[in-house]
UniProtKB/TrEMBL annotation:
Residue intervals of the Out at first C-terminal domain: 204-269
Organism: Paramormyrops kingsleyae
Residue ranges occupied by any Out at first protein BRICHOS-like domain in the UniProt entry: 30-179
UniProt keyword Transmembrane, yes or no: yes
Full protein name: Out at first protein homolog
Record keywords, A-Z: Membrane, Transmembrane, Transmembrane helix
Family according to the record: Belongs to the OAF family.
Regions crossing the membrane: 6-28
Amino acid sequence: MFAGWNLPISLYINVVILVHLLLGVSVFSSELKVRVRLVDGQVAEETLEADSEQDIITLEFKQRDGTLITFVADFKKEVKIFRTLILGELERGQRQYQVLCFVTRLNHNELISSESMARLRQKNPRAIRSAEERRGMEQLSMGMAVNLSRAGQLSPHLRNVCREAGAAIYTQQADAQHWLDHGVEGATFQPLPQSWEGPGLEDCPSSPGLWQPCVCRYSLRLEWYPCLLRYCHTHAARASPYKCGIRSCSKGFHFRFYVPYRHLCLWDEEDT
């Protein structure tokens, strides 16, 4: 828009802000650091970022074993992205780290909007928080692989978030069908072997060899996130309720997916 203008950077920023004001566009972005009590009693620091212009929310935290969990909610595309970076054990012949990505549909009212999130402020940043509502574990069977080179059709953020996962990007067959019905190209998805959910393929902990295909499992929990807005009422007659806070939730996710080699799912042995 201003490519042909040789403006000082400060003046350029002022012009951009003025354009947003003239167009009536409100843009909010923020970052919160929240100390959260994990289920094992440990305390972790969550980073929550919200960008109302891109209409996304990002939540990130590190588990006690060093695993880095990243969650992205893309409201424009109605997509959730779960990314986990798992540190390997070099003495067991594992790579330095392994990245997995799981992509699912974002349902309405799962969490508050990016604009509401961007407005949140903490009164006591040092407080250790626990979720008010602890939701159960959602079971997800990930029967499709997502082609990274075409993943931008699902969300413009997916390729950047999951670029290190390579072929280890998974989604559910029902979600893939929904996106296909809404114009996403068929080459975006690749069905995993049809036998992987049948009786013939064993879970990875029971698989006889490191180079055998098996069904891998991975579980994670978002320990604290704002899931609902809280509304209060005044004593004045006919007064409308007003926003006066948030309700926090915790929710777990259990993923099952095919791997061509048990060697790619060694953490599953440690959890059994």
